[in-house]
Each structure stands twice: as structure tokens, then as C-alpha cells.
Amino acid sequence: MSGKRRPPDELRPTGELVAGLLAGLGLADRLKERAALERWPEVVGPEIAARSRALRIRDGVLYVQVTSAAWSQELRFLKARIIAGFDAALGAGLVKDIRFTQH
Fold this sequence. Notes:
By secondary structure, the protein is of the alpha+beta class. Helices cover about 50% and strands about 20% of the residues. It has six helices and three strands.
């Protein structure tokens, strides 16, 4: 260690450093995807969240498991609104499409 310190005007906030590190490691997008899965109930509301579960995101496609064919059909009608909710919560482009499956 050289003991040389940066002048105070060159110091950067820790959050900025961590964000840069995550981006450099290619993990920033994965963290956003994880955040999207965790925010599914917030984006769709309690009634839909009780009958569905966000499973994963691959290449901008969110895969969601639903309890019945009827809910799958209903959520297809709401797809654009759900994507807009994710855009508002996490930034545009993370969720580009949604696919629904029954369990």
C-alpha cells in the first residue's frame, strides 16, 4: 500500500463504487432481475399475487406461474399494464414480455 490518498474532491460515494463494481462484473442486470421477482406482489397487487408467482426472467421475458387457466387468460389481458408497472418500478426495458404457465 503506497499510503497515497485521494483528495476529498475525488472521493466517490460507496453506493456509486458498488454499482460500478457490480456492472463491471455483469451482476447489475441479475440484481435488477431479482428485484423484479421480489416486487411481483407490489406491481400486480395482492389479489393477483395470491394466485400467481414470478419464477424467473430470461432475456427480458418474465415467467409467471398461475393457479388456473382462467387466471392465465386474465393476466394475458393485463400484460401491457403489468410491464408498465415494472417499467415504473425498476426502469424501462427490464421486462419486455411475460409468459404465464399453470401449475
